[in-house]
Amino acid sequence: MFNILIASQNIKKRNELLHLLPNTYNVIMPSDIDYHDNVEETETSFEGNARLKAQALHNFALSKGLNAAIIADDSGLEVEALNGAPGVYSARYAGVHQNDNDNTQLLLLNLKGITHRKARFVSVIIYQVLQEIHVFRGEVQGTIAYQARGTNGFGYDAVFIPTGFRSTFAELTADQKNLISHRAQ
To answer: Model pTM?
Structure first.
């Protein structure tokens, strides 16, 4: 079995990535190797932030004598009417110490009265083995609902309606979402 480290402290994101990976990997969580750092996302692009996370976990793993591939993700929601916001700031849109609901409510407030609600979820995944780095980008187009609907998922899932659907990501099952999501892409 091949060792692979998931570079995320977000349990829901890790679970989504785990669901997408084949079971031929020995998946190691950062906490399994006593890695508990939250890498500060100082870059202005999803790729830049994913690279920071991958490199930090890669360096830590090597310091522990563990040779494993790394998967690091940075993702977010881009809304056209908000000039791409919240973008790379999606997780902290309402402030550093806020939560998914606060972020979603601020997004809906900022879109109040706006009918052009086209948006996309973007995910950039870095796959790093030693110094070899592969970059993957996935996107799913959609619109922002006028109110939150559904209880599945996390982040902005309750307000994002993927193109071709009437349901939000939060109203879809995990299997349905994982067929079309930005991470699946």
So the answer is: 0.90
